[in-house]
UniProtKB/TrEMBL annotation:
<comment type="similarity">
    <text>Belongs to the beta/gamma-crystallin family.</text>
</comment>
<protein>
    <submittedName>
        <fullName>Beta/Gamma crystallin</fullName>
    </submittedName>
</protein>
<dbReference type="InterPro" id="IPR001064">
    <property type="entry name" value="Beta/gamma_crystallin"/>
</dbReference>
<dbReference type="Pfam" id="PF00030">
    <property type="entry name" value="Crystall"/>
</dbReference>
<feature type="domain" description="Beta/gamma crystallin 'Greek key'">
    <location>
        <begin position="86"/>
        <end position="128"/>
    </location>
</feature>
<dbReference type="InterPro" id="IPR011024">
    <property type="entry name" value="G_crystallin-like"/>
</dbReference>
<keyword id="KW-0677">Repeat</keyword>
Length: 128
C-alpha cells in the first residue's frame, strides 16, 4: 500500500513536469533537452553517504528534513541528488542553522577530509 502511494505520487509529479514542459514556448532544441531531463527525473531525493567514495552508511531524504537523525548526524562525506531535485542545501546544524552549502540537483558532491563541510551535516532542504 505504501509502495502504491509512492508510485502514484511519482506519476502525479511526472504529469506536472510534462504538463509544464508542454505549455512552454521554447525552441525545439530546448524542448528536446527538457524531454531528456524528464526521462531521468522520476526520483527527487538526496542521498547522503558516510564515505567520500559513496559507500558506508547511506540515507535517502526526499523532503526537507530538520534533523537527519543520530545515525547520520555529522557523518556525511558525500551526497548525490536525483534529477528531479532542482536544488538542495546541506546545513551544519539541525533546524537549517549554521553554515550551509547549496548545490544543484542531478549532481553529486564529495567532501574530502580538509573540506569544511566534511562530517558536519545535520539538516537538509530539498527544492524540486
Ligand atoms: Ca552538525
Amino acid at each position: 500500500m505504501k509502495r502504491f502511494r509512492y508510485l502514484s505520487f511519482i506519476v502525479i509529479l511526472l504529469i506536472g513536469i510534462v504538463g509544464s514542459a508542454c505549455s512552454s514556448k521554447e525552441s525545439p532544441t530546448v524542448s528536446k533537452l527538457k524531454k531528456q531531463t524528464i526521462k531521468n527525473s522520476s526520483a527527487h531525493c538526496v542521498t547522503l553517504y558516510e564515505n567520500p567514495n559513496f559507500t558506508g552508511k547511506t540515507m535517502k531524504f526526499c523532503q526537507d528534513t530538520v534533523y537527519i537523525g543520530d545515525e547520520m548526524n555529522d557523518l556525511t562525506s558525500a551526497a548525490k541528488a536525483d534529477c528531479g531535485v532542482k536544488k538542495f542545501t546541506l546545513f551544519e546544524h539541525r533546524d537549517y542553522e549554521g553554515k550551509s552549502i547549496t548545490l544543484s540537483g542531478c549532481s553529486q558532491v564529495i567532501f574530502t577530509d580538509d573540506d569544511p563541510f566534511n562530517e558536519l551535516i545535520s539538516s537538509v532542504k530539498i527544492q524540486r
